[in-house]
Amino acid sequence: MTEREEDKLAGKKAEEFLQVFKKGAEFTQDLLKENERLRYRLLQLEEGVRGESGGAEDSETVRMRLRIEELERQKDEILGRIKQVEAENHDFANRYIDIENENNMLANLYIASYQLHSTLDFREVLQVITEIVINLIGAEEFAIMLLDEKTNKLQAVVAEGLDQREIPSVGIGDGIIGQMAKTGENYFIDDMEGYVRDFGHPLVCIPLKIKEHVIGVIVIYKLLVQKSRFAEVDFELFTLLAGHAATAIFSSKLYSESERKLSTIQGFLDLLTK
């Protein structure tokens, strides 16, 4: 290779090197520009973050914030409605249970009233009333007191859990029992907790009425262990029981008296015919 050809080759390599160097310089310049742009964008973003906490908000930020607030409000409203529905469902469930209990009680009372009116035997009627007071009302100590028309006093004719002889007679208008017999109103003690049996001050006093005429009372002094208080249905039972029991007692007493009179008349006629 001649000297001239070597000079050409060297010049070509030098030019190629300059081209490579030039491209590297351009690439480096592009990198510096992109870095500057990114730094500027980063500064903008940082200023935007600081602006959200204390500076002015752009329209997009405001729109998003308002949208978030609206969604939060809707969420709170939906949660409130869910709680309301849950509370209503709870109330409906409790009411359903109450209605079921009431229906059961009324069904039992219907059966008991049928038993009351299925007999005219005075003692059987008193026994049915006793079973009703025990099983439906849940009383452990109580008495049925009937009015003696001659003395105008209430006398115990049946006692459950008590000695009948310990229960004193009560005049109409005397004490709580006498007052309830006089007015025909039901009596329930205000606070059952801590109650100590007092024959003159029962837990409950239910007059036995036929229309406005009182023929006796049911007095309760103690409830069964599993029954700590009276439910709403109990007050209805007391009212219904009072009417049915009074009618059954009155009818059975009339029948018993008529039977005795008939027996007396029949005995007298037998004597005459002999």
Backbone shape? rod-shaped
Helical amount among residues, as a percent range? Answer: 55-70%
Q: What is the top-level CATH class of the domain at 104-262?
A: Alpha Beta
Largest sheet: 6 strands, antiparallel
Stated plainly, the CATH topology of the domain at 104-262 is called Beta-Lactamase
CATH homologous superfamily (4th level) name of the domain at 104-262: GAF domain
Q: Oligomeric form of this entry?
A: single chain
The CATH architecture of the domain at 104-262 is 2-Layer Sandwich
Q: Ends: how far apart?
A: 182 Å
Q: What is the percentage of strand-forming residues?
A: 5-15%
Strand order of the largest sheet: 3-2-1-6-5-4
Outline the low-pLDDT stretches: none
**Radius of gyration, rounded?**
49 Å
Based on secondary structure, the structural category is alpha+beta
One letter per element, helices H and strands E, the order comes to: HHHEEEHEEEH
Please supply descriptive tags for the structure shown above:
5 helices, Beta-Lactamase, alpha+beta
Structure, explained:
- By secondary structure, the protein is α+β, with helices and mostly antiparallel strands.
- The chain has a domain of 159 residues: GAF domain (Beta-Lactamase, 2-Layer Sandwich).
- The chain has five helices and six strands; from the N terminus they run H-H-H-E-E-E-H-E-E-E-H.
- The protein has a six-stranded antiparallel β-sheet, sandwiched between helices.
- Helix 2 packs parallel to helix 5 and helix 3 packs antiparallel against helix 5.
- The radius of gyration is 49 Å and the shape is rod-shaped.
